[in-house]
Amino acid sequence: MRDEDRDPGTENFINSLPLLQTKIYKFMRYKYEVLTNDGENYEVESIDPLIAKMASKEFSITEDEAADLYIATGNQIHKFHMERLHN
CA Rg, the chain, in Å? Predict the structure, then answer.
């Protein structure tokens, strides 16, 4: 997905998170988009570990930390969307 096609409110929320969390999340999101052709070719067994490994090397964290951070950020984004819907 091109940056100009992203929801500005969601992007502002992501950018309000701690800087390292934002950088890691956006790095992994980009890798998912590229490697899965925007989700069309997503195979959890091969893609998830690969992207966690890439983030691990890029940011000097463990693969588990990368995966956990990506999931936790996704949950925070979901909560943001739910709150925005009900307000």
Answer: 13
